[in-house]
Amino acid sequence: MHPQLPRHRPARRFRRATAALLRRFARDEDGALLIFGLYVFLIILMVGGIGVDLMRFERDRSELQYTLDRAVLAAADLDQPLPPKDVVRDYFSKSNLGEYLNEPSVVQGVNFRNVSATAQAVIPTQFMHLTGVDTLTAPAAGAAEERVPKVEISLVLDISGSMRDHGRMDALRPAAKNFVSMVLKGDAKKNTSINLIPYAGQTNPGPWMFDRLNGVRFGTTGGDIFPEWSEGIDSVTLWFDRDGDGDIDYSAKIEGYPAGEVDGLNKDDLDDYFEYAVDHLRRTDSELQSDTDVVGATIQGGTRATEFFSADGSAGSGPTDIDEVDAVIQFDAFYASVIRNDLASCPEISSGDFTRAGLPSEASYAQVAHFMNWKIASAVMDWGWCPQNQSSIVYASNNETQINDMIQSMRMHDGTGTHYAMKWALALLNPSANATFEAMEEDGLIPEEFANRPAAWTDTETVKYIILMTDGQITEQVRPKETLHPKNPTNELNEGRKDDRTQITSASTNVNRFYTQCNLAKNPSRNIIIYTIAFDAPSDAKTQMKTCASSASHFFVAGTKDIAEVFSNIARQINELKLVN
Q: What is the pTM for the complete model shown?
């Protein structure tokens, strides 16, 4: 009997062999790094590709944003003559990006323009599509606005005699004129008013303002003591009390009046020259002293009855018989001694006015004498510590020609009274002057559109600036002891007349008054922006200008070579155009 063979033996061997093979394969590590490397390579390739796509995206997005920013800035410029939307489209077209631009938006008014735009570029990916991202969208958005606020500027220019040195005035004129042209350029003119304030030893507000402040011209009564003689004056007799006992004891007649008018005064209104006449007689008549009391005057002329008037304006009777008098002079002799009081119009501002931010507000003001302290350079200077009327303040003007003609023609004068100029610069930005501006508009001195200026301090649509330039430090204030001294219009006080001179305020007092006005202007409730320029100035003047400026960055030191750039820089800051997004 044969032995029985195991059943399915080949199958069992196969299974055992297969299991062994699998066990060996599982234990065998040959080739594992290659597979891992393939995975890493694929990952690196994917990340690098994403980086390339992102770099392309950022490049295109940056170009799109850069083009958009330039486009809206150019379109928002109020001086841009082309339609704003066309400007934006043109920028994108020239950059070959026109297909990506959406419709621009423009909002504009009388004094502003806002231009906004968006753009969107769809960028196909080269590698990221492997991850399912087929495109990237590059957005760009921006807006620009130029808003011309209502601007009020006080432009204060030193015209003292030292400005003639080293070509300073020759450099100043074109620099200041260019500043005016820049701030009045284009639509800005509609909303910008400039007070041009030249100054020397004093500041001349002009005849109109002098009268509004109740200024009293020297040589006059400053009132209405004597009537205007409608039929024309033939003679005036002045009555004096030499010994002070209250009784008239001396008389002097002025006769020989001309039939026609005379320059500088109204010969038929004694108020216009009463003090002149009294002063002339006191100086020329040996019977009179400089302090002899004048009691009154008798006026005779035409068919009107000869009449006496008290010098103090009080009612009362007096002598009318003028046939026998103690002295007789001719009108021409008297008139030749008259110092013209209509050449300049500076009021003697009080100490109290320098503690306030508004216009001078005392009941009345004496007129500054017509004199020079330092030797005149007559080729380039006019006579006067107070600038003459042709170099007085120009109020609230946007007339570029008017302002620049004044800058070109203004003449230099004597002294450096920067505190007076700063007083006027601040006062003419103070809303308390509004009634005065309305009156100036009614009299044709300023444009109708500026009748409601200065704007309120709280008006957020209005920006106020003071630009102050000087070449010297603030000095003491001197005056002739006698306002009507006959040498005042011809001989400088410092040239052999020092005994005729008196100091009314020291330099330190004037500097303190200047700083007070600067601080009033910089008060947060007013928030006036003050730019100052020390033009070839000594150290004291630099200190004064730096202290007054709104900040150190608002203070400039300039010479003849860069004064134009300084003024242009300030104008650019005033006109600044900014991106709003």
A: 0.78
Looking at residue 199, its amino acid is Y
One-letter-per-residue 3-state SS of 54-120: HHHHHHHHHHHHHHHHHHHHHHHCCCCCCCHHHHHHHHHHHCCCHHHECCCEEEECCCEEEEEEEEE
> What H or E segment, with its residue span, contains residue 150?
strand 150-158
Return the bridge partners of 532, or none: 468, 555
The pLDDT of residue 55: 76
Strand-pairing partners, residue 464, are 152
Cβ–Cβ under 8 Å, residues 388 and 344: yes
| CB 78, CB 148: distance < 8 Å | yes
Length reported for the chain = 581
Using alpha carbons, select from 153, 73, 146, 72 the residue that is nearest to residue 111: 146
Amino acid letter, 318: G
Local structure of 312: helix, strand or coil: coil
pLDDT at 581: 53
Alpha-carbon dihedral 440, 444, 449, 454, rounded to 10 degrees: -20
- In this prediction, residue 533 carries a pLDDT of 98
Nearest partner of 440 among 482, 384, 396, 506, judged by Cα: 396
- Helices 32-76 and 84-94, packing angle to 10 deg: 140
For residue 355, what are the CA distances in angstroms to 350, 540, 544?
A: 10, 23, 18
Q: Which residues of 445-484 are buried (b: 16+ CB within 10 A; e: fewer)?
A: bbeeebeebbbebeeeebbbbbbbbbbbbbbebbbbeebb
Largest CA distance in the chain: 198
Q: What is the reported pLDDT for 121?
A: 84
Element counts in the chain: helices (H) and strands (E): 13, 19
Residue 39: per-residue pLDDT = 65
Q: Which residues of the chain have pLDDT under 50?
A: 1, 5
- Phi first, then psi, for residue 102 (nearest 5°) are -85, 175
Domains plus CATH for the chain?
32-147 (no CATH), 150-215+342-579 (3.40.50.410), 219-335 (no CATH)
- Pairing type for strands 112-124 and 105-108 reads antiparallel
Predicted pLDDT of residue 5: 47
From residue 136, how far is each of 57, 101, 121, 133, 241 by CA, in Å? 7, 16, 8, 8, 106
Distance CA 201, CA 360 (A): 18
- pLDDT recorded at residue 4: 52
